[in-house]
Design a protein that fits this description.
The structure holds two protein chains of two kinds.
Chain A (H helix, E strand, L loop, with lengths): L13 E10 L2 E11 L4 E5 L6 H9 L6 E6 L2 E2 L10 E4 L11 H11 L4 H14 L15 H13 L5 E5 L7 H18 L2 E6 L2 H7 L2 E6 L2 E6 L1 H6 L4 H6 L4 E10 L4 E5 L3 E4 L10 E6 L5 E3 L18 E11 L3 E8 L4 E7 L14 E5 L6 E3 L2
Parallel strand pairs in A: 3-8, 3-9, 6-7, 7-8
Antiparallel strand pairs in A: 1-2, 1-4, 4-5, 9-10, 11-12, 11-14, 12-13, 14-20, 15-19, 16-17, 16-19, 17-18
Helix pairs in contact in A: 2-3, 2-4, 3-4
Chain B lengths: L4 H4 L1 H27 L15 E4 L2 E4 L4 H8 L1 H34 L5 H9 L6 H12 L4 H9 L12 H26 L3 H8 L4 H12 L1 H16 L3 H6 L7 H11 L3 H34 L1
Antiparallel strand pairs in B: 1-2
Helix pairs in contact in B: 2-14, 3-14, 4-8, 4-11, 8-11, 9-10, 11-14, 13-14
Classes of the chains: A alpha+beta, B mainly alpha.
């Protein structure tokens, strides 16, 4: 399923144009442009220092861009101070006011708007009900668990009914089990409220499971924007392929370039890629292959096993199993190929008692479908 | 009964040492003064008498409470206490007013220049306290530097009378005690998590609102600590009223001195001192209670 991208006709709800931010001459955000549609949950994904937090802080108004524009619902907000932007943020580790009760924390923004007392009370109650903390209004933040604090922070950032919700590492402070549960909860609440959301995370699971679209950032630039499935299955460059999930990389040269297939020679084997690429013969390319797409067996694959008879003799390497990591749901293998490359392969443990157990040190054939090879030219 | 040294543990020792110091340096002198305040003046040369006397097989305990009654009856003492509290309160308020912005900008200054600012606050301590207060005489006197400047500027036609007035007293007190306000406030403000201010701005608070709603409440402990550090010594201050104060500026420290060394009435002077200590202990106890409550809350 492909998600609706902001149409060309309607201007995007949030549009970021040629945004630049420099710190002491170093570009933290380097010429970034993005268009985000109304109601999207958009994730900025990257490792620390990639500029994603700076970009978020510019949206919130805490940093002024050196160049570029940010337009929200048709209004340029670059010169609007943070306290006048219709944007609220859920801070990393929440920044709940320690001297105020949960109730007063949620009411803080509403009171600054000068809403009548009765309306403040009504909205705070409904927000606390939304995050299921109705009974905790009188508590101070430090009297709550991490998960509860996270929900108070969410209620506080939603109380003013912002046009744009910013989430800075929303679940970073929670432990793994709680995080998985909260991911679903958080998405449910955001969708229930219907607010457009930009989140920043370094955790790809979080981005993949929560976001409708992801922008992968590195060194201040956006490398690829797309739905989680697109980013995973059709990365547009070596960095994205390697950063999202794990990938085996083969460096090779295009030996045969046809409309419906290409053949790439690498040190390890000849690759038959069963789709055309935008390239020319003799071009240097990288081939990325996900570990779970690789089949392992003791004998050489027969032509019946292959997706197409044309692939027979291609897409197959041999090597010895160097290590086996059993993870419960899957088993990961490191296979040392004759070329010296370490090939990562993964097999889902679909059956409880696996028939064909592979042992460390065994020589195996590893092979894959030509359709599963991702050809990267950048 | 005796425990081996290991099982005694470090904890009791660590607690006992400061405790013993407090008993020796605070409780004991206080009890001596309290005892003195309940005796008569002795005609036989000693400035005060004894509580217990032995005569004809009787041990007599004689408590003279009239020193305290005298304090209550004579308006002078009551007025002096009130006046001391008043000047201490004015000093504290002015120190807070001047010290808070000072500490605030110090805490928000670039980390590189903070040590310099800190040194500037501490710099006056390198000179004798007495000299510094005395120097104010030269500034505030009728023919002092300030008057000369004002005359030269044409602000005033004749020298303003500033010395030995409440004005000069308050100037001296604020000047002397300002660092004691700034340092705890700075220590508190510099620790503050600035993300709280961003969160406040994000939720629609203007910088001024964020200051009153977030910064000030979060620095409450610093405000209380600084105020106590200024208020408590200011109540009993003797040197500054002596040098810069005048006939209108009654301060209890000066009365105390007069009773001890001019009137030579040690028992009455001791009674004055005991009341001062109680005046200071009450706010101190309130402060400690507040701190304890806050800590208990934080632990809950």
């Amino acid at each position: 399923m492909t998600l609706a991208h902001p149409g060309a006709a309607a201007p995007p709800f949030l549009s970021i144009c040629d945004l630049v931010k420099e710190f002491d001459g170093v570009r933290a955000v380097d010429d970034v442009s993005l268009a985000i549609g109304k109601g999207e949950i958009f994730a900025l994904l990257g490792s620390s220092g990639c500029g994603k937090s700076t970009l978020l802080r510019m949206l919130a108004g805490f940093e002024r861009p050196n160049a570029g524009s940010i337009t929200l619902a048709g209004q340029d907000i670059v010169n609007v101070p943070p306290y006048e932007r219709p944007i609220n943020m859920m801070f990393q580790s929440y920044a709940l006011f320690p001297h105020l009760s949960v109730w007063d924390n949620v009411a803080f923004g509403l009171r600054r708007d000068g809403l009548p007392k009765a309306e403040v009370a009504e909205r705070v109650e409904s927000m606390l009900a939304l995050v299921q903390l109705g009974a905790y209004g009188k508590r101070k933040p430090h009297q709550l668990s991490g998960g509860q604090q996270q929900r108070v922070a969410l209620a506080r950032s939603l109380a003013k009914r912002p046009q744009l919700l910013l989430l800075d590492e929303p679940l970073g402070a929670l432990d793994k089990k709680l995080r998985e549960r909260t991911q679903v909860e958080l998405v449910n609440i955001i969708e229930q409220v219907g607010v457009t959301c930009v989140m920043v995370t370094h955790d790809q699971d979080e981005a993949m499971s929560m976001a409708t679209r992801i922008a992968v950032m590195n060194e201040g630039r956006i490398l690829q924007v797309g739905a989680p499935g697109e980013i995973y299955e059709t990365p547009n460059c070596r960095f994205v392929a390697d950063f999202i999930g794990s990938a085996n990389m083969f460096e090779g040269r295009v030996a045969e370039d046809a409309a419906d297939h290409v053949v790439v020679d690498s040190t390890e084997c000849r690759h038959y890629v069963s789709h055309g690429i935008s390239g020319v013969q003799g071009m240097q390319v990288a081939l990325a292959l996900r570990p779970e797409k690789i089949a392992l067996q003791l004998s050489a694959p027969t032509s019946q096993q292959r997706a197409s008879s044309r692939e027979h003799g291609y897409n197959c390497v041999q090597g010895a199993i160097a290590s086996i990591a059993y993870l419960g749901n899957e088993t990961r293998y490191q296979i040392r190929l004759d070329s010296g490359m370490e090939l990562k392969a993964a097999r889902t443990n679909a059956a409880r008692h696996e028939q064909s157990r592979l042992e460390r040190g065994q020589r195996v054939h590893a092979w894959w479908d030509g359709a599963d090879i991702m050809v990267l030219t950048a | 009964m005796k425990k081996p040294l290991q099982s005694l543990g470090g904890r009791p020792v660590v607690i006992a040492l400061p405790f013993a110091w407090l008993v020796l340096a605070f409780l004991l002198p206080f009890l001596i003064v309290a005892r003195m305040s309940l005796t008569e003046t002795d005609s036989a040369g000693s400035p005060f008498g004894s509580l217990l006397t032995y005569a004809d097989g009787f041990v007599n305990l004689k408590l003279k409470i009239s020193n305290y009654l005298f304090l209550a009856q004579d308006d002078l003492y009551l007025l002096t206490y009130l006046s001391s509290l008043k000047y201490a309160a004015i000093t504290t308020a002015l120190c807070l007013l001047i010290g808070y912005p000072f500490a605030y900008f110090m805490a928000r200054a670039r980390p590189a220049i903070r040590p310099t600012l800190m040194m500037l606050v501490m710099l006056p301590f390198w000179t004798s306290f007495l000299l510094r207060i005395y120097a104010w005489k030269g500034i505030l006197a009728n023919h002092g530097i300030l008057n000369k400047l004002l005359l030269w500027l044409g602000v005033t036609g004749e020298p303003l009378h500033m010395m030995n007035t409440p004005f000069s007293l308050v100037i001296g007190m604020v000047y002397a005690y300002l660092p004691f306000m700034i340092l705890p406030l700075y220590a508190n403000l510099v620790k503050m998590d600035l993300r709280f201010l961003e969160a406040a701005a994000d939720l629609g608070a203007t910088p001024l609102q964020a200051f009153w709603r977030i910064t000030v409440p979060l620095s409450k402990a610093g405000i209380i600590a600084g105020s106590m550090l200024v208020f408590i010594p200011a109540v009993g201050e003797y040197v500054i009223p002596e040098l810069l104060g005048g006939p209108e500026t009654l301060m209890i420290g000066k009365v105390l001195w007069d009773e001890f060394f001019t009137n030579n009435d040690w028992p009455l002077a001791s009674a004055v001192a005991v009341v001062v200590i109680l005046l200071i202990l009450v706010p101190m106890a309130l402060f400690n209670r507040y701190k304890a409550l806050q800590e208990a809350e934080a632990r809950a």
